[in-house]
Amino acid sequence: MIAKLQPIRPPQGSPLTLVLMVASASIGGTLQYGYNLAIMNAPTTFIQTFINETFLERWDVQLEEYQVTLVWTIIVSIFSLGGFAGALIAGPMTIRFGRKKCLLLNNIFLMTAALLALTSRTARSFEMIMISRVLVGINAGISMNVQPMYFGESAPKHLRGAVSLSSAVFTAFGVVLGQVVGLREILGSEPCWQYLLASNAIPGLIQLLTLPWFPESPRYLLIDRGDKEACINALRRLRGCEVQSSELDEILQEQAETKGMRASHPWELFTDRSVRWQLISVMIISSAMQLCGNDSIYFYASYVFKEAGISDDKIQYATVGTGTCEFTACIMCNLLVERKGRRFMLAGGFTLMTFWAVVFTIALSFEHHITWMSYLSMACVYTYILSFGMGPAGVTGILPTEIFNQAARPAAYMIAGSMMWLNLFVVGMIFPFLYCFVPFAAICLLSALYVGLFLPETKGKSLSVIMHEFHRLNFKGQENHFEAQTKPQYQLGEVCLSTAL
């Protein structure tokens, strides 16, 4: 009996679908991280005055300058603690709701934060600003974990690095956008600072209106939910053509290797020898991304430029230049990462940062003795940020997607995000009292050495190949352990042949 053949359906989407999905997720995702870092520079003086006035009205107490600086530092740095909380809940949320729905639900924190910031001035409450910053941090912590995971699981293998790195591009774009909106001519003036703090609701609203129209992560649909048809449909829409059997076979292989495994908890990864070096790599590189000192420049950009000899009326324009540098560097890294590889970009970025941190410290030390040293200091700030954008800014977020399987990936992102946010908080608290970049230079140098010596290249490789390379580090002398444990039990192409017609 001859089975009746069904006609092949035409593609429901186009390659443009993947690009638009990336833009929609990023506008309400990692763009918020960069935007909310940058908008705190412009209203520094105005909010410090507001804090002092509030204390005076409530308790008839005039705060000392160092006390105002301390309260302001807490307001700025508490964003990091919110991010830490967001990183911890991101994993369970992605498992429960999926990648796309998690990003949409994340906007609850954002909208609440925007409302608190908007009404804080009328309520005469700087505490509302603190709560707002915590909620914005939670929003950023979730998006910084979930968005790279969503992109890495949705992109084809040959574009996986570039698509995942677009998270860093939008983070840098968020920095530039926040700096531009924070100009005195726009929302950076004294009467408008509450509107500046609440303006982050606009990108979130754009995401709420656009992201529901795009598909969920194909890997999540097949591996976590077991929905073959939905996975095929998602792949077809994202690729703009019928599904390639080789790509589906790779997802099937990962499904076979994780069959019967539940999603890992973060603490379980610390005792799992099969992911020991993956975990060490992610923890070191995620920590180095913050301990390198780059985000400290954005937290306290005006302080840095004052030390470099830039006049007060020009600082806001010099600050916009820093964001533009990172944005440009991230675009260049996006274009190069699939050619040069992850390890080259990471090690090269950290090495350049080491050099410029040392030069910057020397320039600051002699700026009061040699007139042109102030210009060298300013140049070092820009080159330091350029070096950061060319490697660590983008590649760091790709690694957990590429070196962990589906069961361990959410927990790995929780650990990586926790390390990033905790170290960002530490740096944010100590930077106002740290007057040289030598510690940052040491961290960059050690990070470059680690990447060069221990991190395998992942460019263009399947998860199975990457896991096999890490196996050589995790199980030295036990070469048969990995093959026996991960031998795939599936038939190539079975889903493609049965559902693509």
Q: Summed up, what is this model?
A:
The chain is an all-alpha fold and 501 residues long. It has helices at residues 16-27, 30-38, 44-59, 65-97, 99-105, 107-123, 126-154, 160-181, 193-198, 201-210, 218-224, 228-239, 245-257, 266-269, 276-291, 294-299, 301-307, 315-340, 342-366, 373-390, 392-403, 409-430, 438-454, 463-474, 479-486, 494-499.
Write structural notes for this entry:
This protein has 501 residues and is mainly alpha-helical. It has two domains: 13-214, MFS general substrate transporter like domains (Growth Hormone, Chain: A), CATH 1.20.1250; 263-475, MFS general substrate transporter like domains (Growth Hormone, Chain: A). The protein has helices spanning 16-27, 30-38, 44-59, 65-97, 99-105, 107-123, 126-154, 160-181, 193-198, 201-210, 218-224, 228-239, 245-257, 266-269, 276-291, 294-299, 301-307, 315-340, 342-366, 373-390, 392-403, 409-430, 438-454, 463-474, 479-486, 494-499. The model is unreliable at 1-13 and 484-501 (pLDDT under 50).
What are its keywords?
single chain, 501 residues, mainly alpha, Growth Hormone, Chain: A, 2 domains, 26 helices, 74% helix, globular, disordered C terminus, Solute carrier family 2 member 11a, D-glucose transmembrane transporter activity, GLUT, Sugar/inositol_transpt
CATH class bucket of the largest domain: Mainly Alpha
Helical fraction: over 70%
Based on CA inertia axes, which overall geometry fits? globular
CATH topology of the largest domain: Growth Hormone, Chain: A
Uncertain ranges:
1-13, 484-501
User: What is the mean pLDDT?
Assistant: 84
